[in-house]
Amino acid sequence: MTTSNSRPSSVVLGAGLMGRLLAWQLTRAGHAVTVYEAGGADALGSPARIAAAMIAPLAESAVTETSVVDMGRYSLQRWPELLAQLSQPVYFQREGTLILWHRQDAAEAQRFARELQAAHEKVPTLPQMQAVDGAGVARLEPSLGNRFTQGLYLPGEAQIDGRQLLAVLLQELQTLKVELHWNSPRAPQDFKPGTAGQPDWVFDCRGLGAQAQWPQLRGIRGEVARIHAPEVSLSRPTRLIHPRYAVYIAPKQDHVFVIGATEIESDDLSPPSVRSTLELLSAAYSVHSGFAEARILEIATQCRPTLPDNLPAIRRLGSRTLQVNGMYRHGFMISPALLDSVLELVRDQTTTLAQSLDLHVETVPS
């Protein structure tokens, strides 16, 4: 951090989830922050805008590394603290995750349960999954009635309204008088931090916008439906096991549901395919027939920034430029861990948090 007595100055590149969180917290820590975003204030280019925003380390433990699970566990505790600092409420629910399957997919469900059990053995502090019968499913989600005879309940998992959070963070930045530059793409090489007339720090949070400087980044395309279903009541995120894809249904406020599943190795941002849309909506209908009368609010496509190992990373470009990237499908689940690790690096020039979470921090040779 600057050795002068003046207020430290920081530039944040990118105003998606990570950029907004970091700009907000740096400002609260006393920095004069300037944000440069290639798009507009609406965050239309951010994967966070369409994400289901689930914080589900146990559910994800079947398909990701232990380090990501640990970051998710950290974030489950950290999110309520961060949300409490906001001047406006943001929807946050911690009612666990319900895993369901149809009879013909029982073998796939057994495989998934074995993977969860193996993950629990690696991380014993994870909550234990709970097998539930048809009556147990009905107790957890009365609106499903007797549609399912078996399920798994994953206690303690949470979700946020990500779109609401992005909007509230924008209002916080405006209230704090953060200097915001929209439709103004910038790159780390545009700045020489620590020199006269330049910021003290530069933070690159541009996601796929950083590919020119971080060529290992690639896009993972996701297609997500947002619907309004007044006839459906679900109390928690519900995941449907299927041999080819695992559909999630995340209930937000006022009977709005975010439905997604697809992961395609592609940077393609063209509109969603008919096939993916039919699969998403058909899977939702198979969970609850009330989705048949739902109204489609939006079907959107976005590409998640992903590194070769599907794990997040922090890179040092020199002593005062940090890049934060590679959150893949886990943005809301791991962003508080990345945020606090970066803040620790700025304050102490090292981060014990990242070390404890096995979060990769590397220095790029100049």
- Secondary-structure arrangement, i.e. CATH architecture of the largest domain: 3-Layer(bba) Sandwich
- CA-based shape: globular
User: In percent, how helical is the residue content?
Assistant: 25-40%
* The number of domains: 2
Question: For this entry, what is the oligomeric state of its chains?
Answer: single chain
Distance between termini? 20 Å
Main CATH class of the largest domain = Alpha Beta
How would you name the CATH homologous superfamily of the largest domain?
Answer: FAD/NAD(P)-binding domain
Question: How many beta-strand elements?
Answer: 19
Structure write-up:
The protein has 366 residues and is an alpha/beta fold. It has helices spanning 17-28, 57-60, 66-84, 106-122, 134-140, 162-175, 274-287, 331-348, 352-356; strands at 9-13, 32-36, 54-55, 92-93, 97-100, 130-133, 150-154, 158-160, 179-181, 201-204, 218-228, 238-240, 247-251, 256-260, 264-265, 295-306, 313-317, 321-325, 360-364. The protein has 2 domains: 9-49 and 162-217 and 309-364, FAD/NAD(P)-binding domain; 97-155 and 224-306, D-Amino Acid Oxidase, Chain A, domain 2 (2-Layer Sandwich), CATH 3.30.9. Strands 5, 6, 7, 11, 12, 13, 14, 15 and 16 form a 9-stranded mixed beta sheet that branches. Strands 9-2-1-10-18-17-19 form a 7-stranded mixed beta sheet, with helices on one face. The chain has a 3-stranded antiparallel beta sheet with strand order 3-8-4. β13 (247-251) and β14 form a beta hairpin. It is globular and about 70 Å long.
